[in-house]
Amino acid sequence: MGKAEVVIVGGGISGLSLAYFLLKRNPQLDIKIIEAEKRAGGKIVTENVSGFLCEGGVNGFLNNKPSTICLAKQLGIEPLKGSEDSQVRYILINGRLVKVFQNPVKFFLSPLLSFSGKLRMIGEYFIPPLKEEIDETVESFVSRRVGREFYEKLIDAMSTGIYAGDPSRMSMKSCFPKVYYLEKKYGGLIKGLLALKKEKKDVKAQPEAVLMSFKGGMSDLINALEIKLSSKIIKAKKVVNISKNNSFYTVYFNDGQIDAEKVIFACPAYESAEILKELDREISDILKTIPYPPLSVVAFGFKKQQIGFGTSLYGFLIPYREKRKILGTLFDSSIFPNRAPDGYVLLRSMIGGRRSPELAMLNDEKLIDTALTELRDILQIKGEPYFIKIFRWQKAIPQYELGHEEKLMKIEQRLQKFPGLYLTGNAYRGVSVNDCIENSLKLSETI
Question: Cβ-count burial of 150 within 10 angstroms (0-12 exposed, 13-18 middle, 19+ buried)?
């Protein structure tokens, strides 16, 4: 296959946006993006079936970071703002849906927490900070600072919604670094938020950010990047090995090879681990320890009148204490327009994750039955769905568990032996689309 100045392994949002930013800085740069699958985009998948616009993975991004908005404008695609319903969110508490208010006063007056739970939450102001900086689990950190009830009802569900993870294993420092460092810098969460407000920074416990997407779904972003990078992308080509030869690297495929001055791995950690095992066994072994639990997304189309609870909401999350078999459900057709035919609603339920990986791999019939049984009970749904679509991810969202930051530090130390070799993607510092694009922008500056 010859030579290139830069080879990017992986054509997901991280690899594509990195290539775009590098070429923007140097249009003459010789870049090759190598994607193992027949399609680019990774876990950003949008399918339009029978008028239902379904996202197989992420359904949008928040506008509280500029990188994604700026990239979209440069690509000539207009971001689509979520409706007012996208601000209406619920948590399942004791078998019924309870609204989560963003307004602090309404939140405090809501029935989400018991009176003692509310007092304990306010008492966070008086909880002394830990003197030492330790890698604490999300469960331990939140329970210690804000109370067990706040953790079990809210943060547990939120952690599941973002990571499909297990907060008793997740690293607070790596998963929610901004909250973690409020304690380190200000001595507590309430103290930190008050200090930031005094500094005239618009920071809240739940940042007031708007969910965004695109008219044709999140794949619009991938398609626009592909158009810009079409001559640079090589699909259905699996990288199997890499070696270092003096000042360049040789990237091997099953049927050939390519030499490059710089190589960036923008594929999942477990794929990078397999490719790097001969070049550096230690990096490979560390990457293998980043878990990717399975997750399935089951999309349903119903007529609006079938949903007894109503349809004017973003969706709901379910704390582990409820012992349900779905993690939560999004009302995609209530969030963005043109996601379902007129008179219909599109729901997407998540099943599996770190705590219940076996449920994600149920056969289609059992998976559908599991989701429908839960939805009928929670949302008072009557009748059968008019539309069903399943997306399966055997290895879904990377988990930032205890020791994650230490793993990254060890990898960075080992990479010093290999100038021109880089790792990026959602396995390291942020799983959202915003994080991936922002990290690609920073890496393009470094490279």
Answer: buried
Residues whose CB is less than 8 angstroms from the CB of residue 205 and which lie 6 or more positions away in sequence, other chains included: 104, 189, 193
* Among 408, 412, 418, CA closest to 260: 418
Residues paired with residue 34 on neighbouring β-strands, in sequence order: 9, 234
Buried b (16+ CB within 10 A) or exposed e, 92-119: bbeeebbebbeeeeebeeeebbeeebbe
Partnered with residue 381 across adjacent β-strands are 307
pLDDT, tens only, 164-216: 999 999 999 999 999 999 999 999 999 998 888 887 655 444 446 789 999 99
Tell me the per-residue pLDDT of 54-66, one tens digit each, with 9 for 90 and over: 999 999 999 888 8
Instruction: Report d(CA 141, CA 121) in Å as an integer.
Output: 13
Strand 387-393 to 295-303 pairing: antiparallel
pTM more than 0.70: yes
Q: What angle do CA 34, 37, 38 make, to 5 degrees?
A: 100
CB 398 within 8 A of CB 369: no
Tokens of 447: 């490279």
Angle (nearest 5°) at CA 176 between 267 and 117: 145
Query: Residue 163 in contact with residue 400, Cβ under 8 Å?
Result: yes
Instruction: With H, G, I as helix, E, B as strand and everything else as coil, classify residue 268.
Output: coil
Residue 341 has pLDDT above 70, yes or no: yes
